[in-house]
Structure formats: structure tokens, C-alpha cells
Amino acid sequence: MDEGSFTGSGLNLHTNAFKLEELNLLIKALEINFSIKASIIIANKDKLQYDLYISKDKMSLIKDLVHEHMHSSMLYKLNIV
């Protein structure tokens, strides 16, 4: 649950362990199932590690989808307190 954070401009999911092909599949699933557009950003170029970024305009949808499944101590990561 501790693999992401609200950056002020959106949500950054630390998906460093995922391969690029897996992230593209996840992006497609988020868009098809939830109308959430995400993008890949480079977390560590040398280690080929990537993060997933979801823009601020989708944060209310993200909050609605996940807040009831999160521990209360982690709600600050979505700017919910």
C-alpha cells in the first residue's frame, strides 16, 4: 500500500518492479475499465525502472475507487484526511 503518493499535480505510482510491457497492459486496463488515462515516467533510466502517473483531473475518481480499501493511516497519500 505504500507504493505511491499524491504529488500535487497527480498520483505517482511506484511501479519500479513492473516491466514496460506490463505497465502498458495496466494502462490499457485502467483506461478500458475505469476511463483513467495514465502515463509512464522514467524512475531510473539505468535500471530500466518506470513509474505510472495519473493526472490530477482523475484524482476524484481514484479516491472514489480506492479510499474504502485503504488503511486510514495511508489516506494522506491521496490527500484525504
Can you describe this structure in just a few lines?
With 81 residues, this protein is of the alpha+beta class. The protein has helices at residues 20-34, 59-66, and strands spanning 4-6, 10-13, 38-44, 49-55.
Describe the structure.
- The protein is an alpha+beta fold and about 80 residues long.
- The chain has a single domain (about 5-75), classed as Homing endonucleases (Endonuclease I-creI), CATH 3.10.28.10.
- It is about 30% helix and about 25% strand.
- A four-stranded antiparallel β-sheet has the order 1-2-4-3, with helices on one face.
- A hairpin with a 3-residue loop joins strand 1 and strand 2.
- The radius of gyration is 13 Å and the shape is globular.
- About 10% of the residues are buried.
- The mean pLDDT is about 85.
